[in-house]
Amino acid sequence: MAEDSQLDPSEVGRLFEEHAAALLRYLVGVLRDHELANDVLQVSFKRLQEKGGGTRPEARRAWLYRVAHNEALAVRRRAATGSKVVTQLSWQLDPTVETPESQLLRQESIEQVQRAIEGLPANQAEVVRMRIYENKRFVEIAAELDIPLGTALGRMRAALKKLRERIDG
């Protein structure tokens, strides 16, 4: 018999009935995934039909298990390679480089906050601008505006509450 000869479909059906359940259990044990095991089982019997004609009838069960095992290992290798690639790509990505989408979202957020600050009462907006844009400490803000420290903190707290309501709402 030629090594590449096809096996009769009725013989493949008989072998499927005889060995599929046990082979599936074996593949689930190897792959730990019933769906993948089912796929490998189908591929194995397809190969049996395509190339199993060159095997001796008494060796077909062993041939089938060997083909299924090799295919299962190939599936595991492909999965491992895929996860390695994802891991390597994640290390190569620079989180400081913004995508156009993230730049647009950031710009929209900045504009939304600026509009919300403009809607604050003047004394609260002034404290917020000095703290955020000028990076001043509250002691400096209080001294510059000639107000008590508690008043500066209170204005900031009230401003943040209003900003949160406007932005979240």
Number of strands: 0
Percentage of residues in helical conformation: over 70%
Runs in which pLDDT lies below 50 for 5 or more consecutive residues are none
The CATH class of the largest domain, by name, is Mainly Alpha
**Radius of gyration based on Cα positions:** 35 Å
Sheet with the most strands?
none
CATH topology label of the largest domain: Rna Polymerase Sigma Factor, Chain: A
Compute the separation of the termini in Å.
78 Å
Strand residue percentage: under 5%
What structural category do the secondary elements indicate?
mainly alpha
Shape call: rod-shaped
CATH-scheme architecture of the largest domain = Orthogonal Bundle
Task: Describe the overall structure.
With 169 residues, the chain is an all-alpha fold. It contains seven helices and no strands. The protein folds into two domains: 9-92, Rna Polymerase Sigma Factor, Chain: A (Orthogonal Bundle); 100-168, Arc Repressor Mutant, subunit A (Orthogonal Bundle), CATH 1.10.10. The protein is 78% helix and 0% strand. α1 (9-31) crosses α3, α2 crosses α3 and α4 (100-118) packs across α7 (149-168). The longest helix has 33 residues, at 60-92. The relative contact order is 0.08.
List the helices and strands and how they pair.
Blueprint: H1 9-31, H2 34-51, H3 60-92, H4 100-118, H5 122-132, H6 138-145, H7 149-168
Brief rundown of the structure:
With 169 residues, this protein is mainly alpha-helical. It contains seven helices and no strands.
Entry keywords:
169 residues, 78% helix, Rna Polymerase Sigma Factor, Chain: A, Arc Repressor Mutant, subunit A, mainly alpha, 7 helices, 0% strand
